[in-house]
Structures are given as structure tokens and as C-alpha cells.
């Protein structure tokens, strides 16, 4: 008899346990936020940084958010630190408050999903490694939590595949004042080369004014006193750029052959210009190079007028002295009768013909 009663009681206990378990499962499925504190679990927090890529291109905007999870009250302070440029970062400190004596529970707090909060939204213009850091201040109540994410910023694939633009050269003809007691006017011809990145070699072309030949010496042009002569390759601050350690023995020298440039200009006018042999000069790396020479001057004609004719492969400008009467000044782009290629990636098909007539005040 006792055995039968015991079996009945045991069956009732099992049935009640099953019903309780099913009821609890239904409640948890309906409300996943319901959780129960376990006296045997320790408080802990985890941090997940979301939305970042491993690699960004220069100028590409980055942004990210954070997911906090763990077992605890969910009341804590946290810091989010992220880069704003190659040397500086900013930190956003936030305190998440809640009711006092909040119970411990399992939680997931997704800043973007729950609050629409994200960080960054910044473009970085310098290549390198950058790190985002998120930390929770434990207040010595539990172990601190820290998470970091490091990503790279580099040139885009498209930019890597594109060759850098070739250095650009421009000619500047500087007309000085007349030498005292003489009508001769020193002429300085400068080849200004600019490059996106510093270069360690520059081509010296040495284009010359037309009519600089022995038959016109003393009539159209003449030699200058030593104090007016100048040959230099400098940067924009006037520093000498010639790398003497890489010069051949004997210094800078140019092959003796003259190069001619046949242009077909307006009204089918044919103009022939000249330069010395284009020669590479080793230089200390620079992005701006001035290759200047002053080695002759020009005389006026019988009417007191000075005349300049100049042919170059590059855009040309003339800088006049302060006291000058400019009678005419023109620079036209003409077709080269025969194209010129100075390296596999650069072909010249046109040249500039620049002319000026002027008179200088006494």
C-alpha cells in the first residue's frame, strides 16, 4: 500500500516539474530579455567593434559602432578612441547609468541597432596603420574590458596601377637691366621643372635664343663680364641641388652635338630652334628644380629695339625688367615636323615659338 502511495506522489512531482519547465520555456521564448541571476556566476563584459574593414584607400571614409555584451548590471562607463589623422586621435567618454541595485543579468547592447550611434565618419589622407580602441571602466567592481581594431590605409589599387605623371618643365626667359655704360642686356634662361614627388635626376635641355651664332657675335649678341655669368641648378630656396657624388669625373659636361627643332607655325612659317645635347644631371632629390644659365647678352638694333626669338619644347614666358616698353610679345604652339621621344612614355609632337620686341629706358 505504501509503495503505491509513493509511486503516486512521485508521479505528481514529475508532472509538476514538466509543467513548470514547459511554462518557463514558453515565457523565455516570448520575452528573451527575461533572465535569472545565478549565485555562482561572476560579472563580466565583452566588447565587439563592428563596421570596420581591414584596408581602406586614402581619402576613403571610415566609420564603426560597438556591441557590448556580458553578464552584469549593464551600468558602466566606456571610452571610444579613434584616429582623426596620422598623428592625432580623439576620445569620446560615455557613462551608462541605470537604477541602483540593478540585478545581474545576461545582456546585449548594440549601439547602432539600439541607439543608432556610430563613430568616426572621417577620411584619412596618409597611408599607415590606424587603431580604434574601446574600453570599459570597471570601477574596480569587475575586470576591465578592452577591444582594439587595427586597419591599414593605403593608396587605392587604381592609383597604384596608374603611373605617376611625368615631371613638367617650363621655360622662363629673364631680361635684366642694361649693363652700365653698355647697351648689352644679360639674358637668363631657366628651365623650371616640377614633379609630384621628389626626383633625383633632371634633364638639362639648354634651348638657346635664335641667331646666337658666330656671324652675329658683337652685332646681335655678345659675351658678358664674369660677374654677370651664372650657371646653377637650385631648389626654390636657392639651395644647390647638383649631387657631386654622382657626377662623372670632370663634373658636368655636355656632348658637343647641337640639336635642331623644326617647327611649322602659323601661315606655314618654318622656324628652326636649337639646344645643346639634352643631358641628365644627378641631383639631390627635389620636387622643384631651377636650371638657370646666364652666359650671353643681346644688343639693340639701329632703332634701339631689342628682339628675342626662342624655340622650346616647353611653355615659355618672358619676365621683363621694370622700366621697359614692350612693343610686341607672343608665344605660339607649333607643330614639330618630326616628333621627339626622350623616354618610352613621353613623345613631343609640338613646340613653342616665342618672340618679343622691346625697348629699355636709359
Please characterize this protein's 3D structure.
Residues 31-38 have low confidence and may be disordered. The chain folds into 2 domains: 44-159, Immunoglobulin-like, CATH 2.60.40.2550; 168-360, no CATH class. The longest helix is centred in the N-terminal third of the chain and has 29 residues, at 2-30. Strands 10, 11, 12, 13, 16 and 18 form a 6-stranded mixed sheet that branches. A 5-stranded mixed sheet has the order 2-9-8-4-5, with no helix packed on it. A 5-stranded antiparallel sheet has the order 15-14-19-20-17, with no helix packed on it. 11% of the residues lie in helices and 50% in strands. It has helices spanning 2-30, 111-115, 157-161; strands spanning 44-50, 55-57, 61-72, 76-83, 89-96, 105-110, 119-123, 128-137, 145-154, 168-175, 185-204, 221-222, 230-234, 259-264, 270-275, 279-298, 306-312, 316-319, 324-343, 346-360. With 362 residues, the chain is mostly beta strands.
Distance between the termini: 143 Å
Strand content: over 45%
Oligomer description: single chain
Structural class: mainly beta
Tally of strands: 20
What value does the Rg take, in angstroms?
A: 40 Å
Per the principal axes of the C-alpha atoms, what is the gross shape?
rod-shaped
Total count of domains: 2
SSE order, as H and E?
HEEEEEEHEEEHEEEEEEEEEEE
| Helix proportion range | 10-25%
Number of helices: 3
What is the average per-residue confidence, as pLDDT, rounded to a whole number?
84
Write a concise keyword list for the protein shown above.
single chain, rod-shaped, 362 residues, 50% strand, 3 helices, six-stranded mixed sheet, five-stranded mixed sheet, 20 strands, Immunoglobulin-like, mainly beta
